[in-house]
Amino acid sequence: MSNNSKNSNIASNLLTSVADFYQYLDGLFDLDDTDSDTLFAGGYLRGLLSLVATKFGDESQVISSALIEEVNEKITQAKTELSPQDHAIVTNFWLESQQRFSL
């Protein structure tokens, strides 16, 4: 499968569960043209989502508004541990990712 096919498959699939989001993030690491900022943001968000998801269930759970809001809060709190540039990268990637969620 070409990288363009992988990109379109990843971009076109709606994500309904935490496991779907993990799979989406894993797919980014398989692409040759994924930039380092995207990989950083994806890894950081995977950790945040993993932390938050335990409050709501397991990785097979459906992505809910409450789960998204909790991740939003964690990203806001991360301002103290991330540089302003890294915080912007993570925030922007999270906002783009939310467009893939099927709520």
**Shape, please?**
globular
**β-strand amount:** under 5%
> How many structural domains can be distinguished in the coordinates?
1
H and E order: HHHHH
Radius of gyration: 13 Å
Give the number of helices: 5
Distance between the termini: 29 Å
Largest sheet: none
Share in helix: 55-70%
Whole-number mean pLDDT: 86
Low-confidence parts, pLDDT < 50 over ≥5 residues? Answer: 1-11
| SS content category | mainly alpha
Number of strands: 0
Overview of this structure, please?
The protein is mainly alpha-helical and 103 residues long. The chain has one domain. It is globular and about 30 Å long. It starts with a helix and ends in a 5-residue tail after the last helix.
In terms of topology, how is this protein built?
Layout: H1 3-12, H2 18-30, H3 36-56, H4 65-77, H5 84-98
Helix pairs in contact: 2-3, 3-4, 3-5
Summarize this, please?
The chain is mostly helical and 103 residues long. Helix content is 70%, strand content 0%.
What are the defining features of this structure?
single chain, mainly alpha, YfcL protein, UPF_YfcL
